[in-house]
Amino acid sequence: MTDATQPIRVLLVEDSEVYRDSLVFLLGTRSDVDVVAAVGDGAAAVRASAEHQPDVVVLDYRLPDVDGAAVAAELPEPVVFLSASAGRDEYDAASSAGAALVRKDEGIDALLVAIRAAAGR
Question: How many domains does the chain have?
Fold first, then answer.
């Protein structure tokens, strides 16, 4: 659980540069969220997690080098999965990881609710 007086430190892992940049911008408009790093693949996510020690990792389930479930297993932080097409594999992985799953078409408000919940807020 994070200190409720401080912004939630988020690591964003998304392979689409345009979508990643859009999320960084949108999340940056919220005073209770601070995107500390944004990366495009699983290997970079593990490195960025160790370097930045975020409170929550927002993790695209389908990455170019590995699926999100494998990355989540290597991270100590709570994870919120993102998926464009959430199927049985994604829901099962989220359930196994104790993580929320937000479909990309649900919008920024649904993502913020999941981030805040993962941070214990």
Answer: 1
